[in-house]
Design goal:
Length: 299
C-alpha cells in the first residue's frame, strides 16, 4: 500500500475520532463548563511531558499576549459549542459549528483586506440559505432548539476568530508547541470560569471522567493531530472535503447510538451549508495558491 492510501485511511480515522466529540458531549452529565475544562485539562496533562522534552525552548511564547487572547477565544468556543448540544440536536450543532471556514473568510475580508471573490460569496449565500432552512424547521421550539442553534453559530464565530488571530503566532511556532500553549491558556481560562461560577471541580462520577479523558485523547489529540499530518501530504481541497464528513458522520452516529431524529429540514439545510462551506473553502484555497505562485514568480 503506497503512502497516499495510508494517509487517506489515516485521514478517515481522524475524521471518525473528530465525529465522536458531539456524541461524547451529549452523553456526559456534567455542566458544559466542567466538560470543557476537563477536556482541555486532560489534553494538556497528556501533552506536557512531550512539550518539556522536545519544545521547552518555546515556552517563552507563553509571554506573548496573542496566545493568551487566542486561548481565551478557544475557551469561549468550547463553552458555547458544548452548551449548544444541551439545547439542540447534535446534527444541528455540528452543522452550524462547521460554518467556521466561512466566518474566517469574512474576517479576512473585513480585517486583512482579502478580496471576497465570487466563489466565496456563493458559498456564504448557500450557507445562509441552509441555516435559514434549519432554523425554520426549529421555529416551533423558539426557546429551545433555536437558542442551541444560536450558541453553535456563535461557537463557529469564536473558532474562526481564534484561528484568524493566531495566524501570526503560527508562523513563528511549530504546530505542536503552538497548540500546547493555546490549550494551556484555554484550560486556565476555563478553570477561572469554573471558580467564578462556583461550580465544583470534583464529584462527577467515573463515567464522566472517562468521557472527559476520551474527549482529550480522541477528538482533541488523535483527531486534530491526524488532520495536521494529512495537510502536509494531501491537497487542501481533499482535506477540506474530508472535514465536512465530520458533521455527516456525527449525525449518523447520533441516530445510530442515541436514536436522535433527523428531520428533513436538517438534511436539506445541512446539504446547503456543507456545500457552501466546501465551495468557499476550495475557492479560497485556490486563490491563495494562485497568489503564492504570483509572489514566487515576482521574486
Amino acid at each position: 500500500m503506497d503512502y497516499k492510501k495510508k494517509i487517506n485511511i489515516l485521514l478517515a480515522v481522524g475524521i471518525f475520532f473528530l465525529s465522536t466529540s458531539g456524541i461524547l458531549i451529549k452523553v456526559a452529565s456534567a455542566p458544559p463548563l466542567i466538560t470543557a475544562f476537563y477536556r482541555m485539562f486532560f489534553t494538556v496533562l497528556i501533552l506536557t511531558p512531550y512539550f518539556l522534552i522536545k519544545h521547552r525552548a518555546d515556552a517563552r511564547y507563553f509571554l506573548d499576549y496573542r496566545p493568551l487572547l487566542v486561548g481565551f477565544l478557544l475557551a469561549v468556543h468550547f463553552i458555547l459549542w458544548i452548551s449548544s448540544i444541551q439545547y439542540t440536536d447534535i446534527s444541528n450543532s455540528v452543522i452550524f459549528v462547521a460554518l467556521q471556514p466561512l466566518f474566517t473568510i469574512i474576517l479576512e475580508y473585513l480585517f486583512a483586506r482579502e478580496d471576497l471573490k465570487e466563489g466565496a460569496v456563493i458559498g456564504i449565500v448557500m450557507a445562509v440559505i441552509g441555516s435559514s432552512i434549519i432554523s425554520i424547521g426549529d421555529f416551533y421550539q423558539l426557546g429551545d432548539k433555536l437558542f442551541g442553534n444560536f450558541l453553535a453559530l456563535s461557537a463557529a464565530l469564536f473558532a474562526s476568530s481564534y484561528l484568524f488571530i493566531g495566524r501570526g503566532v503560527r508562523k513563528k511556532l511549530n504546530y505542536f508547541p503552538y497548540l500546547y500553549i493555546l490549550y494551556t491558556y484555554a484550560a486556565l481560562f476555563l478553570a477561572v470560569g469554573v471558580y467564578i461560577f462556583e461550580i465544583p471541580f470534583i464529584g462527577y462520577g467515573t463515567n464522566n471522567y472517562l468521557i472527559f479523558l476520551a474527549l482529550a485523547l480522541g477528538p482533541t489529540i488523535v483527531g486534530h493531530s491526524i488532520l495536521n499530518l494529512a495537510v502536509r501530504y494531501l491537497p487542501t481541497s481533499i482535506v477540506s472535503l474530508s472535514i465536512l464528513g465530520e458533521p455527516i458522520l456525527t449525525t449518523f452516529l447520533a441516530w445510530l447510538l442515541l436514536s436522535e431524529e433527523i428531520r428533513m429540514t436538517t438534511m436539506f439545510g445541512g446539504a446547503f451549508i456543507l456545500g457552501g462551506i466546501y465551495l468557499a473553502s476550495v475557492y479560497n484555497n485556490h486563490q491563495n495558491r494562485k497568489k503564492e505562485r504570483l509572489q514566487q514568480s515576482e521574486s
